[in-house]
Design a protein that fits this description.
Radius of gyration: 26 Å
Number of strands: 6
Oligomer: single chain
Structural class: alpha/beta
Shape: elongated
Number of helices: 4
Strand content: 5-15%
Order of helices and strands: HEHEEEEHEH
Distance between the termini: 90 Å
């Protein structure tokens, strides 16, 4: 009789321990997911911060990103978020030939710049000399999608700024 009671108690303890293990694994996985997402967000904003700091240094040196391009260059900008809008605004103010934006999430017109926004697929037949990637930390993913035949000159905004700062 005592053995049965002890056996039932042990079985119940094992069930409880199993449930606790499953719950703790679930919580650990969720915690890892949250940490990874926050880490990726931190990397993203750190990249934006570095770009803007270098851009400010460029401005303090009385240089503009427009200095990188010739007036006759036909330019498109990939990534029409805030930094893409800043790039297009500066280039347009300095009489550079920015013809469109490219973005996988937007179609239509950009409200701030008035530029036509194309998807990657829709811009394939447009004559473009340069594409500026406004999202440098994603360039490794973006370049193969944009430059399928290796005929385009693609630069990140960081490459443009770094080149100008070295002059």
């Amino acid at each position: 009789m005592k053995r049965r009671i002890i056996r039932k108690i042990l079985i119940n303890i094992l069930w409880i321990m199993g449930i606790v293990c499953i719950i703790s694994l679930f919580i650990k996985n969720k915690t890892d997911e949250i940490f990874l997402k926050k880490s990726e967000e931190a990397d993203k904003f750190h990249s934006y911060y570095n770009t803007l700091v270098k851009w400010m240094e460029l401005i303090q040196n009385n240089q503009k990103i427009a200095d990188y391009f010739k007036k006759e260059d036909v330019i498109a900008i990939y990534g029409m978020g805030t930094i893409g809008e800043f790039i297009s605004s500066e280039l347009l103010k300095n009489n550079r030939n920015v013809i469109c934006g490219i973005d996988k999430n937007i179609a239509g017109k950009n409200m701030k710049t008035g530029l036509k926004i194309y998807s990657i697929e829709d811009c394939q037949n447009i004559k473009i000399d340069y594409i500026i990637i406004s999202i440098p930390y994603l360039a490794d993913e973006i370049v193969p999608m944009l430059n399928k035949d290796n005929s385009l000159r693609i630069v990140t905004i960081d490459e443009v700024i770094d080149t100008l700062l070295m002059r």
